């Protein structure tokens, strides 16, 4: 293989961890190439664009609905910068919880204990902006198929899933835990991109990072759901639903329709995956999931009308179930200039980037 020394670092994954990392490296004079297998940035901060039957554009934050930051958090300075650039805003609506047994709302409050922030005009706006800052070259629709350490050149060689040679890099930062996960093999039938023989000292921590699957259901209604007194709430005592939020109530969103996003429980999602496998879910499966989730929502007395749009999406491994490097903040092989970072290192949420 022909190799050439390039003064670059590869960042794999354009979720909030990868995007912030790429931006920080670029601001410190490093030339960065960011690779993302999806069509756009964001990870679970992605925004989904759908079309209704009558041709209306519908936008949904179908992953993370918001993020919170304490005033003492290290990330507060970043959030203030994003606010000044118009990339984020506070979401100040009422939130609470809903008990499925009594079918009553509990604990309704004005803003909650922590300020809630959303991307403007979508959750992916933050990643979209910082993935295109000077010094960052972003390549979307490019999945990494193989990462190989070239001992004699002291470089990393990257190859795409389709076999295309992507170049050599002095360092690699991976914010996608699936590069070392057996789940990659279960989904693609191929070995994970990073052979842990290249980084044996990291293998123990990275081999099996637990993940929490989830289905989201995107709903659009012609009229407001007047039976719901809050714009976001968690479910208690439901086997199917864990969370719901009114996406169209967020600042900067279109109010031409009322759009809600529901999240399933982990147990419900695991049950579906146990029957259907980890491969991309079929339309039949997604239709059945959409029916289950909406019936639970409607059966709780939360909607007396039918949505004019309804579609389910599966998050197979986006939500981590553990933190593997709370103190170190990342997993790092200094000799090979390989870093693995993400919320699965610090805390399993957006602000854990």
UniProtKB/TrEMBL annotation:
It comes from the Eukaryota. It comes from Cephalotus follicularis. It holds the Pfam family NAD_binding_8. Gene3D superfamilies: 3.90.660.10, FAD/NAD(P)-binding domain. InterPro entries: FAD/NAD-bd_sf. This is NAD_binding_8 domain-containing protein.
